[in-house]
Write a structure and sequence with these properties.
139 residues, alpha+beta, OB fold (Dihydrolipoamide Acetyltransferase, E2P), 38% strand, elongated
Length: 139
């Protein structure tokens, strides 16, 4: 069965549009995070999502009033982290870590992770170094 040329053109256009969807879904660091507000948050890992396009892990930390806040920490893609020696097994649910990260511009409890300090004092980079000032305590 031969497909008419008009239908082939339509199918080709739909294919091109669908292939562009992943690019539209990717977000910009600068659009979501404040590169001038580097914070340090210490807390217990509650969940790890080691998936593309970026890993996420969640930590429970106390805010200034003593209330528990669950922070979502975004990191580099899994393959990028793996190439630097940072593996999923490094993030253990129930373990206390200290995160140096950039806060979300929308004041939500989201962070762009930069450096993770583990209980033994070792450190691994989870995201971009940026050009921010020294860290301040998260509020």
């Amino acid at each position: 069965m031969k497909i008419p040329s008009r239908n082939r053109l339509l199918l080709a256009c739909v294919g091109v549009m669908l292939s562009a969807l992943p690019a539209l879904a990717h977000h910009s660091f600068a659009a979501e995070y404040d590169s001038k507000e580097l914070v340090t948050v210490s807390g217990v890992i509650t969940k790890v999502e080691w998936t593309n396009p970026h890993i996420y892990f969640y930590i429970d930390a106390k805010d200034a009033s003593g209330a528990i806040v669950n922070w979502a920490v975004e990191g580099y893609p899994p393959n990028t982290l793996k190439r630097t020696g940072f593996t999923r097994d490094d993030l253990k649910v129930g373990e206390t870590v200290t995160i140096t990260a950039y806060k979300a511009k929308d004041s939500s409890s989201r962070l762009a992770g930069r450096e993770v300090t583990f209980p033994d004092g070792s450190k691994k980079f989870a995201g971009p170094a940026g050009g921010a000032a020294p860290p301040t305590d998260a509020k």
